[in-house]
Request: fold
Amino acid sequence: MEPRRYSGNSHWYHETQASARAEQTPPLYPEAAEVEDRFLLGLQQNESILTPLFQACRPLLCAGQALSLLLFPDSMTPTLTHTLTLYDRLAIALTVAQVTGIQRLCNHYAARLNPLPGPDSSRESNNRLTQLTQYARQLAGQPAVIDAAALRRLDDVGLTTPDIVTLSQIVGFVSYQARIVAGLQALLGMPVCWLPGLNECIDAPAHCFALAGEYHFRLPPLERRYASEQQLTAIAAAQALPELADIVWLLAHDAPALHAWSHLQSLPPAAANAEESLAQAVAARINGSPVCFRRYQGDFLLALQNGIDEALAASRRQPLNHAVIQLAAQLTRASDRLSAAHLQPLLTQGMTQHQLFNLIQRVALANWHNRLQQTLGEC
Reply:
């Protein structure tokens, strides 16, 4: 007998199939759906502790809030080319939140998903949602395993190219959001509370970085002759950022997301300092993104290519770089276990809270960028 769906999810762990139920069970934390700031999810209530930092970083935090409202509006109507429903989007977000293990995110996305009616109980609908959540789980936890076959499976269940771009942006955004929230929780000295049984992200194998082939798309990019004015405006804004030049014509299939993402990318200082560049390279090495990794030309290039442990050994006599590698690796592999203890070595080396947050922001953005590059193209 075909399993039937019921509307709502009473727990964090989203299931693609479920039995019929007479009554819908409320989420564990229903109030999490009503939080005013859908990016920091209540962390701004601790503003008395980090008031100068929140004020200095307000443009970044406002951009994150705008992206959250854009990707997860209160309501939306799918179209023929953009078929993802609000239920799909929140189910994807909840899946990524589960992978990161950040409970604040799990509470929020579960509470928002709960009242929405799920898709029908047909085999096609169940298979589609299964493929969506499986792709999201893999891209969030092990980006290096995503290949052309993974995109073909999405195409087989009816997703369009704009759908796959939006899906990848959602996974990237929630991965970014999780690391910003984790970093701020550590800066606030909040106790670490992680879910037992969740594994750390597994580092990509070294052979991913051995070849230096030309980057090419796995999906057809937008053609200029078919581009709308909104898409051309988003492309023009994004092309000003060198790190986006490779993929803007593909990301333009979702012009609002591209425009908001490029705006966020333009807010940090234009050029990353040596520590921030090193931290971004650590994230790219773990996530298996050779395109992003090759932008780093610092002293630890060869050591990082061989592995994070070798880079840590090579930096042992340089306490600041050693601490940067440790922080970036922890934030990328297991952000839910980041604590104030991981930040203390950097504070000891003279970093201010603002500089430390900039470093966290760079790592979070790198994790988003790595996932887009890994998904949409290959070398």
